[in-house]
Amino acid sequence: FKRYKSISPSIDKLHSELSAIVGKKNAVSSLAAREHHNHDESHHTGGSPAIVVWPNSVQEVSEVARACYLNSVPMIPFGTGTGLEGGVIPKTESVTVNLTNMDAISDLNIEDFDVRVQPGVTRKALNREIRNTGLWFPVDPGADASICGMVATGASGTNAVRYGTIKHNVLNLEVVLADGTILNTGGSKRRCRKSSAGYNLTELFIGSEGTLGFITSATVRLHGMPESTLSAVCSFPSVQDAVNTSIQVLQYSIPIARIEFLDNVAIKAVNNFSKLENKIAPTLFLEFHGSEAGAKEQVNQVAEIAAANGGTQFKWAETVEERSKLWQARHDTFYALLALKPGNKGYSTDVCVPISQLPAAIEHSLSIVEKYGILCGIAGHVGDGNYHCLLMLDSDNESEVLRAKMAAEEIGRKAIFLGGSCTGEHGIGIGKRELLKEEVGLETLNVMKGIKNVLDPRNLMNPFKGLPEI
Ligand SMILES: Cc1cc2c(cc1C)N(C[C@H](O)[C@H](O)[C@H](O)COP(=O)(O)OP(=O)(O)OC[C@H]1O[C@@H](n3cnc4c(N)ncnc43)[C@H](O)[C@@H]1O)c1[nH]c(=O)[nH]c(=O)c1N2
Ligand SMILES: CC(C)C(=O)C(=O)O
Ligand SMILES: [Mn+2]
């Protein structure tokens, strides 16, 4: 990997080149713009970009990339800045490319259940736009992230157990490479459900965290709105009982739409933050989608399994309002925990293990956070084997930061040992680059580096993120 010489001497020249491409008001180096783009929602820190640009079209993104490429200046794609791994934080003098001006929703094919979105379109904006079609886009990270940013991080959320992660919902991507080349990963205008034509470049860009190119549009799948939706909360005597229930629900192939776990600490925080009155106990948040009869049948099956594991009776969210309050509370768990220690930063782990290994993994995580003495709530997409230890830390307390880092590393390493991954949905970013090496092995890492070298030979796309240096 190359070292970068400072771009400061040539910054004025580059600034005027970029202004000529995107217009003066869309190429900015003010303190406010730079500070707005020097952080995400994580605890990670770094520098501020030298210049921020807001291109208005794929052609402008291509010209911006070309100008940076010819000046050998690193570039950072910026979506909505809700990432949890420091992906948008500059680690060297860089130009940040904020893609939110490109916010078109086009090519809505209701009969084929697909649509094309530019990087400024968030998941909620898309769902608002298509609300009268009977279709919806189910991938739902807690934040209202940009869909292209979700592609970049390999995101998922609470609906993945039924509808898949972003990976299962992307049909094609338009991409701009570091040198300005524009391409469609599946070929221009392709939007078929299946293809065996050549290498799968669409999946290559999913989870690439801005290190391979700019995603300037995504063609994504939509799903039919379920006829009936039932949501409930069920509490359990122990973490193991709640987790065993999730495993058995999946083993019985019940097509549950959402099955989310919160531990005692998380439930307490959520009750305070979202004014709920859940029993303080290990809890599952559940949702069932189907025909009226189908959803009820799923409820009966899950109720039986829960009862066998000591689950108390379901508490129902009866109305649409109660249902959205319940899921908003789940999505706000991170902020609910932060509210327990105002001024703190959240450090989220994100391991994913084969579901049979969930009990061992969670038990180990609990022992680790206890060992390091860190306040932690657990929230999990347990239907996917993916859960977060949400570590709350005072970022001015060096010892606490170090202990949290060591705890997160041990938790990640244990997941890898159990056949899992150090990240199910947030990405590698700044903090898990060494764990990536342990997870995939040196040979695989070298192939990844070879791919990076072909697509971005000058290492200008979001350097110091994702791949570790050897
Ligand atoms: C409260 C809360 C709750 C959650 C989450 C966050 C928060 C604050 N997240 C994490 C976050 O929302 C998720 O990582 C998003 O996919 C990030 O999308 P942004 O548009 O914000 O990307 P953001 O701007 O933060 O960028 C993230 C990374 O992607 C790159 N990138 C962004 N847009 C790009 C583009 N168009 N082309 C190329 N690269 C691009 C960036 O360079 C960076 O490396 C999450 N996630 C999850 O998967 N499941 C969850 O349950 C949650 N829950
Ligand atoms: C770490 C958090 C914010 C998350 O992904 C979740 O709540 O599922
Ligand atoms: Mn999550």
Description of the molecule:
With 470 residues, the protein is an alpha+beta fold. It folds into 4 domains: 90 residues, Uridine Diphospho-n-acetylenolpyruvylglucosamine Reductase, domain 2 (2-Layer Sandwich), CATH 3.30.43; 120 residues, Uridine Diphospho-n-acetylenolpyruvylglucosamine Reductase, domain 3 (2-Layer Sandwich), CATH 3.30.465; 115 residues, 2-Layer Sandwich (Alpha-Beta Plaits), CATH 3.30.70.2190; 115 residues, Alpha-Beta Plaits. It is 36% helix and 19% strand. The protein contains 16 helices and 18 strands. The strands form 4 sheets. Strands 15-12-14-13-17-18-16 form a 7-stranded antiparallel β-sheet. Strands 5-6-10-8-9 form a 5-stranded antiparallel β-sheet. Helix 1 runs antiparallel to helix 3 and helix 8 packs across helix 10. It is globular. The model has no long low-confidence stretch (mean pLDDT 96). Dihydroflavine-adenine dinucleotide binds next to strand 3, helix 5 and strand 10.
CATH architecture of the largest domain: 2-Layer Sandwich
What gyration radius follows from the Cα positions, in whole Å? Answer: 22 Å
Decide which structural class fits the backbone: alpha+beta
The CATH topology of the largest domain = Uridine Diphospho-n-acetylenolpyruvylglucosamine Reductase, domain 3
User: Could you tell me the mean pLDDT?
Assistant: 96
| Uncertain parts | none
**Distance from first to last alpha carbon:** 8 Å
How many domain units?
4
For the secondary structure, the number of strands is: 18
Helicity range of the residues?
A: 25-40%
Shape: globular
Q: What molecules are bound to this protein?
A: dihydroflavine-adenine dinucleotide, 3-methyl-2-oxobutanoic acid, manganese (II) ion
Q: Which CATH class of the largest domain is shown?
A: Alpha Beta
Please give the count of helices: 16
Strand percentage: 15-25%
EC number: 1.1.2.4
Family: Belongs to the FAD-binding oxidoreductase/transferase type 4 family.
Function: Involved in D-lactate, but not L-lactate catabolic process.
Subcellular location: Mitochondrion
